[in-house]
Write a structure and sequence with these properties.
Blueprint: H1 3-36, H2 46-54, H3 59-81, H4 88-91, E1 101-104, E2 108-113, E3 116-121
Antiparallel strand pairs: 1-2, 2-3
Helix pairs in contact: 1-2, 1-3, 2-3
Amino acid sequence: MTRSTQDLVVGLGRIGYIARGAVLAGIGIAALAASYAYDAANAKGVDGVLRDFAQTAFGPWLLILVALGLIAFGVFSFIEAKGVAPSAASRCSSRTPQSTTTTSRTAASIRWRPGGPEFRPRALADRTSVL
């Protein structure tokens, strides 16, 4: 994947996560309002939040923006599922690699790498670590 394509995919992911976050924030605000009023009927799902978005002053435009953002999230998720989405490690490959440390656990081992922890089942874990 070229650098410009990676940037486009990452941009789609950012836009998608912003739209998804707006919808989830609306659901959370509705749940807080329902708990404050002691009325479970005020709690809303995605459909209720989108109806509330539509009733605002910029309702149709807000719904269009959220819909485009959710479409961007869907495209990003599809590309990510195909396994061609840029990972954080590939975007940060200019860093010098550091040594890896393995920590033993009962059911799995955790390998700490520069990009973050990697969880592996015990059967696949390195047997070189000291217990």
